[in-house]
Amino acid sequence: MATVTKMATPDEVAALAMQRIGAAARAAAAELALAPAEVKNQALLQAAAALRASAGDIQAANERDMQAGEEKGLTRALLDRLMLDEARIEAIAQGLEDVAAQPDPVGRILADWQQPNGLKISRIAVPLGVIGIIYESRPNVTADAGGLCLKAGNAAILRGGSESFHSSNAIIQALRAGLVAAGLPEAAIQSMPSTDRALVGEMLRAAGLIDVIVPRGGRGLIERVMNESRVPVMAHLDGLCHVYVDGDADPKKARRITFNSKMRRPGVCGAAETLLVDARAMAGMLPAILDDLITEGCEVRGDPAVCGLDPRVSPATEADWTTEYLDAIISVKIVNGVEGAIRHINNYGSHHTDSIITENQESAERFLAGIDSAIVLHNASTQFADGGEFGMGAEIGISTGKLHARGPVGAEQLTTYKYVVRGTGQVRP
Amino acid sequence: MATVTKMATPDEVAALAMQRIGAAARAAAAELALAPAEVKNQALLQAAAALRASAGDIQAANERDMQAGEEKGLTRALLDRLMLDEARIEAIAQGLEDVAAQPDPVGRILADWQQPNGLKISRIAVPLGVIGIIYESRPNVTADAGGLCLKAGNAAILRGGSESFHSSNAIIQALRAGLVAAGLPEAAIQSMPSTDRALVGEMLRAAGLIDVIVPRGGRGLIERVMNESRVPVMAHLDGLCHVYVDGDADPKKARRITFNSKMRRPGVCGAAETLLVDARAMAGMLPAILDDLITEGCEVRGDPAVCGLDPRVSPATEADWTTEYLDAIISVKIVNGVEGAIRHINNYGSHHTDSIITENQESAERFLAGIDSAIVLHNASTQFADGGEFGMGAEIGISTGKLHARGPVGAEQLTTYKYVVRGTGQVRP
Fold first, then answer.
1. How far apart are CA A127 and CA A413, in angstroms?
2. Residue A59 has pLDDT above 90, yes or no
């Protein structure tokens, strides 16, 4: 009988690639889970050294991506995100060294008790296993994500954007050189073999091979991942952050914190998008705050009362209360005290980061308790929403989901736990 | 002009019901999140009292379900799960009192530090929000789930199986009477208005209204939920649990623990399904273990070596290593020491609960570290996989997922956290 050979379809090729990469990642994860802290840290330090040693190759790879990006007509902002120079490569290497210096999140005893029957039960932090990271065109995410996964004893499968393909692969080479130098399996950090979109679909279907998917990027990517994924997802959605200036605010703090929350870097997820002002603070504090913003080039869209305060304010529409501008634009609304602010934020916000400016301790506590967000601040800028600013060394992103990790996701948040039960022959009655 | 009125389709009716119930749950959750521990506990105690006071009504409702179940031809096992007598209603009431007696999981300070810039950061346990529970026909789940959600400050939306519809509703009335008596919003515990399957679909699509879905039931239900849900799911999959008898086991402990792990209650998720025996223990220990099981009526399916030991053993097929029998059946395989056991369990198991029997401390530690399961035990029965046996008071199930909660899910696991940051005017440089 003749054997019929059929060409594999592109989907079958993608499925086979996923199987191969996933199986290698699982085997590497089992090894990494048992690796001592020193060995993992050694791998991180060696990876940093390899990054510096191969800075020339990385820049050459980046050059290819930049050229293709220019030909494709990428915006200046995107090209700037993509670009790697010596200083940026040094910063990436330094980031890996910072992660190495953090305490090891694996093996922490989270709880520990004895049952009346003599069973000793402990809840112990262990790695999550295999983490899939799907991200857009920032090559530094490659090193941050790979490094944090390694620190937490996880294997990583990276799928970066097509625009940074060569840059990311060059960085991955350095990370893998670090693994090999420390005697750890190279497959602990892998990238998908191409930027074929079918491979993203395979990752999202790879339950059993991948334990968690972390998407990093724009709304389109995140929504696709959240809708399609059969693997649990650590959600990183919008940063629709608010500053609320209370009637009992210190006017100087109100000006400084509002300005910093919006204008320090308007494009980060912790940037304020909406300013809420207590009716009692409108006449006394808001004009100066508006003037600061507008003078610096910020566009202000306000409710009718705010428009009445300053002719340079344009009218806000309902859509403005739900828009993450990521730009020098802010919407401003007058509310009735802290209760009005809480209602607005829990209704329109994205549960990311919100700040109250007040000298009234009672109002502050009411706000901190009543706002359902990952990060709530009192008298501080929303732009502190950052793993580094929280002392975590690095972050893979800011989770706006409620399951598992909320707020900055560092190495500790990339672990789970297991129960270890030690007996002396107990059986259940 | 004439107005055309169109009948709403069943799907539109389901969507509207979900909107209404979800909005009421969100409002109730916001109130419950701020409720003091005493008030929540008062609601639990009042609910227990209401359950006892309405035991007659509950039994009458259960009578309707039982009659319908008999007409539908439900198996004896299913009818037994469904049945509520006075003793079972008392046990349910006692369960709510046990939950009330547990420490409050909300408001715990999980971490607390100060940054060099003076920001004081704390990570504080807060409720998850709105929890959707989709379960099959065990009416006691209604009270366990509702009570645990309430304890953790969450609103619950319950969707029980059609077979227990009247029983569950009668129990929910008692739970709501408890809420009202304690001055808490009745909408903190709601049930879907019918057992229409379209309503399950609406729950699975209700991202934004429901924060987490917890499915409890058979494989079909769980897989539907995990495949269809757009809301994060706390997975409760199979309990394919293993006992591994090491060559250095105490033969008495090996017999007693193996027998208990399988035969105490063969139908629970913590029951052992596969017994692995070190080649060194085969001749010395396995015959007596097999005899215990077979004498008690347990069917044994073994690999060729095991079949050779006892003529009453039938040959196991590959499918036996991945089958959760939930019955008096066990598969038995000879492995090469602890490494062979780890390889088999991580490959075929369901990451639920696995136990090693050995007097060799080094082998025990190797097993406890190497097995990637929610619960790993040394010299103790797998049937201890239970929130009550862990001292948690009650559980909503055993999570086999790795995100958020692993192992028994009690009130503590139904919380998330937020970061509270207290400043004195800090802005980010």
1. 10
2. yes
**Residue pLDDT, tens place only, A83-115:** 999 999 999 999 999 999 999 999 999 999 999
Q: Return residues 7-66 of A near B (CB < 8 Å).
A: 30, 33-34
Residue B4's pLDDT is what? 55
- Superfamily of segment(s) B241-386: Aldehyde Dehydrogenase; Chain A, domain 2 (3.40.309.10)
Q: Which residue of B has its CA nearest to A30?
A: B370
Rounded CA gap, B363 and A127, in Å? 21
Nearest chain A CA: its distance from B251 CA (Å): 11
Report pLDDT digits (tens) over B293-351.
Answer: 999 999 999 999 999 999 999 999 999 999 999 899 999 999 999 999 999 999 999 99
Query: Would the CB atoms of A406 and B390 count as touching at under 8 Å?
Result: no
Query: Shortest CB distance from B380 goes to which of A30, A119, A369?
Result: A119
The ipTM, to two decimals, is: 0.92
Interface of A with B in 183-242 (CB under 8 A): 211-212, 226-227, 230, 232-235
Please report, as a single letter, which amino acid is at residue B244: Y
In terms of Cα–Cα distance, which of B1, B10, B187, B171 is closest to B89? B171
Q: How far is CA A26 from the centre of its chain?
A: 24
Question: Is beta strand B120-127 parallel, antiparallel or unpaired with respect to B415-426?
Answer: antiparallel
User: What is residue B182's DSSP assignment?
Assistant: T
Q: Does A412 touch chain B (CB under 8 A)?
A: no
pLDDT at A393 (0 to 100): 76
Residue A166 contacts residue A65 (beta carbons within 8 Å): yes
What whole-number distance in Å separates Cα of residue B249 and Cα of residue B357?
Answer: 5
Q: How far is B356 from chain A (nearest CA, A)?
A: 10
Kindly indicate whether the domain formed by A12-236+408-420 is annotated with CATH number 2.20.25.10: no
Mark yes or no for CB contact A416/B402 under 8 Å.
yes
Q: Do B115 and A390 touch (CB under 8 A)?
A: yes
Contact A425 B252 (CB under 8 A): yes
Residue A283 has pLDDT above 70, yes or no: yes
Q: What are A176-211's pLDDT values in tens digits?
A: 999 999 999 999 999 998 878 889 999 999 988 999
Partner-chain residue, chosen from B227, B401, B403, that has the shortest CB–CB distance to A230:
B227
Centre a 10 Å sphere on the Cβ of residue B101 and count the other Cβ atoms it contains: 11
Give me the percent of chain A exceeding a pLDDT of 90. Answer: 81
Provide the CA A161 distance to its chain's centre, in angstroms. Answer: 16
**pLDDT tops 50 at residue A1:** no
Reduced DSSP (H G I as helix, E B as strand, rest coil) percent helix, strand, coil of chain A, to 5 = 50, 20, 30
Q: Where are the domains of chain B?
A: 11-237, 241-386
Contacts of B18 (CB under 8 A, 6+ apart): B199, B202, B203, B205, B206, B209
Pairing of strands A329-335, B120-127: unpaired
At residue A4, the pLDDT reads: 55
Tokens matching residue A377: 């601040």
Q: What is the pLDDT of residues A243-276, one digit of tens each?
A: 999 999 999 999 999 999 999 999 888 999 999 9
Which amino acid does the sequence have at A117? Answer: N
Task: Name the nearest CA neighbour of B367 among B294, B278, B253.
Answer: B278
Q: What is the pLDDT of residue A304?
A: 97
User: What distance in Å separates residue A19's CA from the closest CA in chain B?
Assistant: 15
Checking if the pLDDT of A64 tops 90, the result is yes
At what angle are helices A37-53 and A55-72 packed, to 10 degrees? 70
Short-list B416, B419, B418, CA closest to B153: B416
pTM: 0.92
CATH of B11-237, picked from 3.40.50.2300, 3.30.300.30, 3.40.605.10, 3.40.50.300, is: 3.40.605.10
Q: Which residues of chain B have pLDDT under 50?
A: 1-2
| CA-based radius of gyration for chain B | 24
